[in-house]
Design goal:
mainly alpha, two-stranded antiparallel ribbon, two-stranded antiparallel sheet, globular, disordered N terminus
């Protein structure tokens, strides 16, 4: 009986997913390698992944925007800063709206990266995914980075310089992603999509780790502080909850690349 249980719990990577796994592993190694080398040896190399960090910031802030709109609230502005931080100024009402909006940034970035993992796993068009990413960044830039600040000019809490940088960086990212999808060879388009997925996931996890130390050692304003103010639950609890949910989402995404337990039943999911 015990042997049968161990047999059921045995998993392996699906044969047809090995090319995608290899692509993701290479993208992950390069991403972590660049991060370590730029942090401890050659800081100038950080510029190599700087556009991808800005991309992850746009996804993070864009997730706040979507959550705000979906809960029937209004967005005043979206800005991205040169240090890759960002902020969305919005008006919300009710504790549920605050909970949904504040949680959307970190979890939205993780969900986006996980969705790209699933997209890659099922061999959907990488060009379409990058076109979508370009369109999303372009939409966030034009509507919430430029137009909404203009419409709310008399109540803005941001500077003209921040608006200019947001529009400039958003336009460059949109154009770069569009050019990759339109003119890149399939090999580079696939690698680019894998790189975007890995960057989103790593950015979300590293940002949550940073948030943990910020929350544990300072009173700096953050999404976790917003959650504490809205619910009365300590901010550190929300950080741990977001980390747990993010790890769960990533695990589910990676699980798509695995074969179900070895079994003679051919109708089980993830079977060879």
């Amino acid at each position: 009986m015990k042997g049968s249980f161990r047999e059921k719990m045995r998993y392996k990577v699906a044969e047809d997913s090995r090319p995608q796994i290899t692509l993701l592993v290479v993208a992950t190694i390069i991403s972590i390698g660049l991060w370590l080398v730029s942090k401890y040896f050659f800081p100038s190399l950080a510029w190599v992944v700087y556009p991808l960090q800005l991309f992850a910031t746009f996804i993070h802030e864009g997730s706040h925007v979507l959550a705000t709109v979906l809960t029937g609230n209004s967005v005043q502005s979206l800005t991205v800063s040169p240090d890759t931080s960002g902020v969305v100024w919005s008006q919300s009402s009710g504790w549920f709206s605050q909970l949904f909006i504040s949680s959307a940034g970190y979890l939205g970035t993780t969900a986006f990266g996980t969705a790209l993992l699933a997209w890659i796993r099922y061999n959907f068009s990488s060009r379409k995914a990058i076109y979508f990413s370009a369109g999303f960044i372009g939409l966030m830039t034009i509507v919430f980075g430029l137009l909404m600040p203009i419409f709310n000019v008399f109540s803005l809490k941001i500077t003209l310089v921040s608006i200019i940088f947001t529009v400039f960086s958003g336009a460059v990212l949109t154009a770069g992603l569009f050019a990759l999808a339109r003119y890149g060879s399939l090999k580079w388009v696939n690698f680019g999509l894998a790189f975007l997925a890995v960057q989103c996931l790593l950015n979300a996890l590293f940002s949550l780790v940073d948030l943990f130390f910020i929350t544990a050692t300072t009173d700096m304003h953050s999404d976790a502080i917003n959650m504490a103010n809205a619910t009365g639950i300590p901010s550190i609890v929300w950080v741990f909850l977001w980390i747990g949910i993010s790890i769960l989402m990533i695990s589910v995404g990676l699980r798509l690349y695995a074969v179900s337990q070895k079994s003679k039943q051919n109708d089980l999911p993830f079977e060879d």
